[in-house]
Amino acid sequence: MKTIIYNLAFYYFSCVVATAAIAHIELVLDEVAPSFSSSLPNKGTVTYDETKLTGVGEETLAGSDASFSLLFDGLEYTQVDDPDSGFPQYYFTDGEFVGLEFQSTLKSASATPDSYLDVQNNEMIYSYDAAEAYKGHLEVVTVPEPSSIGFILLSSACLLKRRRA
Is a pLDDT exceeding 70 seen at residue 4? Predict the structure, then answer.
């Protein structure tokens, strides 16, 4: 049992130095465009370096401090799809991810060159032809960091050992 506790302690303390945090995003379509054709879920993941955040108030990250991947209408979008320099931007309140700013043309075969996917904080607007715009929003679920999971496992192991003693 001591070996298990030592291994869990090592895992916990090695994870404390980890700096990558992950937030899962669900893109909820409040209005569905007639051209929207995918039955796949619209979702994504944001990964960011939490050491760049103070954890107090409103903060913004950009560039190599964060990255994302979104699946929309069955097609993947990443930060390289945003043509503007300095974007996308990632927004945080008290250290928690709350939204991002990102814009791209739609990759769908039914989209015109004037199409767009525009995410502003946690609101989304998309259009397949720039004539009709449809709304959606982001729902964010923060994933616990590995150090938190390690602490829970270590605590559980200690409690189990204590009960057996």
Answer: no
